[in-house]
Amino acid sequence: MPRETEADIRENWQRVLGDWKERISLFQSEQHKKAVALEKRHYLLGVPATVFAAIAGTTVFANLNKDFSNEARITVAVFSVLTAALTATQTFMNYAKRAEQCRSVASRLGNLRREIDVLETQVPASQSAMAEQLRKLNELIAKVSEDAPLIEGPKGAGGNDLLLLMR
Questions:
Q1: What is the pTM of this model?
Q2: Is 5 exposed, middle or buried (0-12, 13-18, 19+ CB in 10 A)?
């Protein structure tokens, strides 16, 4: 088997790192988009829940010394049920925590991308040295992938398995 030249090693190194960096950037972008979408959902549920709770609470206190009409009772009941439903949904879906997880993963992916930028300038001396550095980088990628919350992958790729993106 012919021995690889320094140019071959450099070409393979640049190709693999370039491909991995592109995929990491794509995954980072998807994580960031998901964080923004989850944060919007958090506010879309939280703000109405807060407003409805305020309306129901002030209506009850404003009418403590008065007899409630049926319309007022129905209104307070509707706002109370809406408040409970929105609050329960927001608690169950936990959009704020999920958004923070996505932001954290996006940040770690950015760190990986910058690490690849540095590695691109340091071409290994041999095929075995290249394989070792790629193995270490792949371990870091695997850890980020493990910790990443599930998101819909880019263009229907499905899931969040960054390792599949790396192959």
A1: 0.74
A2: exposed
Q: Where do the structural domains in the chain lie, given as residue ranges? A: 6-166
Question: What value, to the nearest 5°, has the Cα angle with vertex 70 and ends 61 and 57?
Answer: 20
Question: Which single residue is written with the structure tokens 């969040």?
Answer: 160
* Tens of pLDDT, residues 43-81: 999 998 888 888 887 877 776 667 777 887 788 888 888
Structure tokens at 67: 């007899």
Query: How deeply is 51 buried, as exposed, middle or buried, from its count of CB atoms within 10 A (0-12, 13-18, 19+)?
Result: middle
* HSE-up (13 A, CA, CB side) for residue 118: 7
Q: Give every CB contact of residue 20 below 8 A, 6+ residues apart in sequence.
A: 116, 137, 141, 166
CA 31 to CA 115: how far, in whole Å? 19
The upper half-sphere exposure of residue 134, i.e. CA atoms within 13 Å in the direction of its Cβ, equals 22
Do 45 and 86 form a contact (C-beta atoms < 8 A)?
A: yes
